[in-house]
Every structure is written in structure tokens, then in C-alpha cells.
Write a structure and sequence with these properties.
The protein is of the alpha+beta class and about 375 residues long. It has twelve helices and nine strands. A hairpin with a 3-residue loop joins β2 and β3.
Length: about 375
């Protein structure tokens, strides 16, 4: 698998599996197992895993392009994909001695979907400060935690779970563990019925004294926070920005098609031919979409060749992407008027989906806090 084949596989799956079902899955809040199976069969679940684990060893650039392609057809599936990729990166970066070889082989073969279970109801969007704490038992730890949102809840084969280290002193002294689906005490707490990304099963989950063996401890005690920042945050911010880009591109395509096909019969013109104000707004959508695309390429480049500005780019790109996706899809709603409002077009789904990126942690507000503190030389936490 190389960059080109990964992209062509993503396009094929987006057209054949995602696009035809996206509207109905959104309506029903239905998680697409078919999409995950197709991504697995195509080898896309392991594209960033090192080749020594059976992955394709591809980089952030390919990940971003694949994610944006999926999001253009169905942002719910793209979000499932990106959370999996973040979890897979964390599992691949597990400390020496962790028994993850089998799981990485399952991911590389397309038979294993994973995800992140970080946010807790107690600390809300401040995912870096879990309130739950692991308790040592004879063979590992027991974890009791209320996880407030877990994408692919109940549909994943494993969960990367954060919790305070048994002897951790401060609020960020966390450890990451791998919790296999089916472990006693792990349950989904109700159905997911969100405003947007309705087909990605982002339900709360409960861990009720789940027993996790030592070999599934992914980081050293208290080093979970460092892994969140170094391993998870970069692909998460890149991936959420790529989802935003896919949404923007889809909004431009649908809006342009509507401006060409909808007509003022009495004037003998299409909407696009008739109204310069709509053309100007469409142009702004295109400018913002291409601007986001350039930002994403810049971030992928920073991740491939890290430098002093990399952390700022990571934070900025997600913050910008959330606002751009909301702006572009809001403009699409306005341009397409009653047709969008009455759900004759997919624009309202794109508009709803676009709002998720900004509230997913780190939220746009928190990112601004971090960015400004970084500029001012203040500690981020
Ligand atoms: C579709 C979806 C999927 C998700 N999937 C996952 C997942 O797979 N795994 C996971 O761990 N979590 C997941 N989450 C949770 C997500 O990452 C956030 O934790 C959650 O959305 C926060 O919501 P809240 O109401 O608790 O936010 P709150 O913390 O209550 O925030 C409320 C408001 O306060 C603002 N705010 C908070 N702190 C600050 C600050 N320091 N400075 C300025 N403003 C601040 C926020 O920006 C927000 O506007 C998901 C969420 C959604 C919506």
C-alpha cells in the first residue's frame, strides 16, 4: 500500500459504501459496520502502523487525505476512522513489555477497530485530568470510570482508557490502558442521539471494576498525559481538521450543484446565473475550504519534519478547522435557503456534523487558551 493506493481505496469505499448510506444512517443514528469492514478489508485501518507490525507505515499526509475523502461522503465514519487511528498509534507506541503484538496484527489485518475513552463526566472536556483512579490488584489493576463520550462505543474491539495512576499525586498523573471489548464490567450507557455525527455511536461508557492485566498497561505509571500530548494530540488535531475539510468540500459541491440546477423559471435562469450575491458567497466557501486544505498540508509537513512551530500548528489547525467548517456549512445553509432547511439537500447534515469538531476536546476555546499561553511563554497546564 502506498499513498496513491490508499487514496484510491478511500475514494472507492466513500463512493460505494459511505455515500449511499450516509443520509439514512444519520437519520437512524446507525453505526456503519459495513464501512468499518470495508476499511478493514482495504487495509486502511493499519495504514500508519509501522511495517514491523504489519501496517503500511504511511505518514500523516496520507492519513489526512484518506480521512478528508471519507468525511466528504460521511463525517461520522471519518470520525470513527480518526479515533481508531489515534488509538492504534497509542497501542503501537506502548511501553516495552506490553502485550500488543497480537492486537496490532489484528488492526493491520483489518479485523480490529479501536478508539479513545478519555473524557470523563467529572472533568468534562478537560480530558487530561481524569478523576477515576486505577487500583492495583495482584495481576494488574481494576478500573472504575464514567467515560462521558466514546466514539464507536460498543462497536470497537478495544478501548484506550485513561485513568489516574494508582499512586499518582497530581491531576494529570494518568496512565493509559488497553481494555478489550467484552471485559467484565465494561458497558455502553444508553444510545447516542447527538445533533451531528449521529452515526458514530459516541455514547457514554461505564467501567465498573474492570480488571486489566499488567501487559495491557500501555504507558508507564503517570505517563499517560505525556502520551496524550505526544502520541494522540497530533493525529487527533490533524484528523479532526481533515474531517472538517471533507465537510467543507461536500458543502461546496452540493451548493454549486444546487446553484446550477435550481431555477427561477419566470426569469429563465438558474440561481447561480441569477444572483451575484450567491456566487460571491460560494466563492468565499471555496476560498475558506482551500485555505483549510493548505493549513492541513502544512500541519502534515510539520508532523513529518517536526520543528519549533509544530505544537502551535497542531493547536491552531484544529481551532481553525472547527470555525471554518461551521462557517462554510452555515454559508451553504444560507445559499441553499429553504431547500437546505427542509432537508431536500445533504447540507443540513453537513452543518450539524460540522459543529462536533469545535466541541470535541481540546475544544476551540481551550485551544485558544493554549495558543495564547504558548505565545506569552506561560505554562499550558
Ligand atoms: C461527537 C462527539 C464524539 C466524541 N468522542 C469522544 C471520544 O471518542 N473519546 C473521548 O474521550 N471523548 C469524546 N468526546 C468528548 C469530547 O472530547 C469533549 O470531552 C466533550 O465534547 C466536552 O463536552 P462538555 O459539555 O463536557 O464540555 P465542557 O467542559 O462542559 O465545556 C463547556 C464549554 O466551556 C468551554 N471551556 C471549557 N474549558 C475551558 C477553558 N479552560 N477555557 C475556555 N473555555 C473552556 C468549552 O469550550 C465549551 O464551550 C466526544 C464528543 C462528541 C460531541
Amino acid at each position: 500500500m502506498n499513498h496513491e493506493t490508499a487514496l484510491s481505496q478511500a475514494k472507492e469505499i466513500a463512493e460505494r459504501v459511505l455515500a449511499p448510506a450516509a443520509g439514512q444512517n444519520d437519520k437512524e443514528g446507525r453505526f456503519s459496520i459495513e464501512a468499518v469492514n470495508a476499511l478493514g478489508r482495504a487495509g486502511l485501518l493499519g495504514i500508519m502502523l509501522p511495517t514491523k507490525f504489519g501496517g503500511a507505515g504511511l505518514g500523516p499526509h496520507t492519513f489526512a487525505v484518506v480521512t478528508a475523502t471519507l468525511a466528504e461522503a460521511d463525517a461520522s465514519v471519518a470520525m470513527v476512522y480518526l479515533m481508531h487511528m489515534c488509538a492504534a498509534a497509542t497501542i503501537a507506541a506502548a511501553r516495552p513489555g506490553a502485550a500488543v503484538t497480537q492486537i496490532l496484527a489484528e488492526i493491520a489485518s483489518g479485523a480490529h477497530l479501536s478508539t479513545l475513552a478519555f473524557s470523563e463526566s467529572g472533568s468534562r472536556s478537560h480530558f487530561w485530568a481524569p478523576l477515576s483512579r486505577a487500583r492495583r490488584n495482584g495481576t494488574g489493576v481494576g478500573i472504575t470510570a464514567k467515560k462521558s463520550w466514546v466514539t464507536s462505543a460498543g462497536c470497537s474491539q478495544s478501548y484506550v482508557v485513561s485513568t489516574l495512576a494508582p499512586e499518582g499525586k497530581g491531576p494529570t498523573d494518568s496512565t493509559l490502558y488497553l481494555v478489550r471489548a467484552g471485559v467484565h464490567g465494561l458497558s455502553v450507557q444508553g444510545a447516542w442521539d447527538g445533533l451531528g455525527l449521529r452515526a458514530n455511536a459516541s455514547a457514554p461508557m461505564m467501567l465498573d471494576d474492570c480488571q486489566v492485566p499488567l501487559e495491557f498497561q500501555l504507558t508507564d505509571d503517570g505517563k499517560g498525559f505525556q502520551a496524550m500530548l505526544e502520541v494522540v494530540l497530533p493525529p487527533f488535531c490533524l484528523g479532526t481538521a481533515a474531517v472538517a475539510l471533507g465537510l467543507c468540500r461536500a458543502a461546496v459541491v452540493t451548493t454549486a450543484a444546487h446553484l446550477k440546477s435550481a431555477r427561477f423559471e419566470h426569469l429563465g435562469q438558474s440561481l447561480g446565473e441569477s444572483l451575484p450575491t450567491l456566487r460571491a458567497q460560494l466563492a468565499t466557501m471555496q476560498i475558506d475550504t482551500d485555505g483549510l486544505s493548505a493549513r492541513i498540508e502544512d500541519l502534515a509537513d510539520h508532523l513529518e519534519r517536526p520543528r519549533d512551530t509544530t505544537l502551535l500548528r497542531v493547536l491552531e489547525t484544529k481551532a481553525a478547522a472547527g470555525d471554518i467548517a461551521i462557517g462554510v456549512t452555515s454559508t451553504a445553509m444560507r445559499i441553499c435557503g429553504g431547500s437546505a432547511f427542509s432537508k431536500q439537500l445533504n447540507i443540513e447534515r453537513l452543518f450539524r456534523d460540522a459543529h462536533a469538531g469545535a466541541v470535541m476536546a481540546p475544544t476551540g476555546d481551550v485551544l485558544r487558551e493554549f495558543i495564547a499561553k504558548a505565545i506569552l511563554g506561560m505554562p499550558l497546564f
